Amino acid sequence: MFKKKECVAMLLAGGQGSRLYALTENTAKPAVSFGSKYRIIDFPLSNCINSGIDTVGVLTQYQPLYLNEYIGNGQPWDLDRTYGGVTVLPPYQGKKGADWYKGTANAIYQNMKYIDRYDPDYVIILSGDHIYKMDYSAMLRFHKKTGSVCTISVLEVPLSEASRFGILSADDENRIFKFEEKPKNPTSTMASMGIYIFNKSVLFDYLKKDAAKEKTDNDFGKNIIPDMLESGEKMYAYKFDGYWKDVGTISSLWEANMDLLGSKPVFDINDESWRIYSRNTAKPPQYIGEDAVTDNSLISEGCEIYGTVINSVISPGVLIEKGAVVKDSVIMGDSTVKAGSSILYSIIDENAVIGKDCSVGSDSEKAKKITVIGAGTVLPDGYTVETGKIISADEVDGGTSK
Q1: Whole-model pTM?
Q2: What average pLDDT score do residues 152-161 get?
Q3: By C-alpha distance, which of 116, 117, 125 is closest to 11?
Q4: Regarding predicted confidence, which is higher, 344 or 402?
Q5: φ, ψ of residue 157 in degrees (nearest 5)
Q6: Are 128 and 41 in contact (CB under 8 A)?
Q7: I need a labelling partner for 60 at 20 to 30 A (CA). Which of 210, 355, 362, 367 fits?
Q8: Would you say 336 and 348 are in contact if contact means Cβ atoms under 8 Å apart?
Q9: Mean of the per-residue pLDDT values for the chain?
Q10: What torsion do the CA atoms of 271, 275, 279, 281 make, to the nearest 10 degrees?
Q11: Do residues 168 and 188 lie in contact, with contact meaning Cβ atoms separated by under 8 Å?
């Protein structure tokens, strides 16, 4: 007889990530490279094991092949358990047919049997596209102490950005009395982080009610949370004051990478007290050539740097030839920047080749438009990609970018 689990995590990792354009054409957003040697999904998975949560269901749907392979048996995150551990949960064929996940709530609804296997008292719902370090066990203690049936992790955001989020209002004891999903005219700056802890029995009740409705988006923010508030359920806001970044857009992904740089980075991924684990294949040490110039950059193992790298994040296996300049950019794994090329304010995806004397992006910080080169793209010698352009392998013509 297996011992029941107190809390099971359900990690939503099936979104298309359309706002990342070329970066998610062939891979799920949680599998996108981040911070030199990590993937976005490493952060919630690491948070789980660091928080003492050893049972995680990862709900996949869009372009899941690489993500499934990356997660594997969960060993890098100490989630290769005989009972529990990590389980990939794609949509499946059931007795009454097969169905894609229709929304965040429907994805959990379709996997209630998985949750029930462990008979947990609590379920924590997580998103697979956020960069942050968080102790979920502290949030669970708060949830139990308040007697809440649903606790939502929140952080303060500028009023100018509040319309991008689910916005809550709470009293002096942090009990929630109002919730609006992406309001046009927000009345609060308390934003939902998309992290929820539910009492399992209450969650199941509302998921079943939502599934029975003819008109619903099957979404936590649009349906489940408002329905619970309307029914007078006891719901609390858990205030988080650490670093948290939704990397669902090109600019936010670039900014989050830049936050890792400097002697006192905004976000420290080398904090030994809260390790971020990842699946990395062994690479030889980095090699910095005699004439190379590097400054304020994160350069991973397996790189060969012969040119200039300034204020940039360089992933494993990258080659930057002599005379090439990379500045204010992110170069993902196993890409090559050949001699004489300049990469400025750009993101270069994995296995790309930038030919000789190419010009990618602009040094104009005022524009803040990030140029993107998709995975596997090969730019011919002398090719120019204008500032803010996003191109994939099948969009390269004979000269200047379209």
Answers
A1: 0.92
A2: 92
A3: 125
A4: 344
A5: -130, 160
A6: yes
A7: 210
A8: no
A9: 90
A10: 50
A11: yes
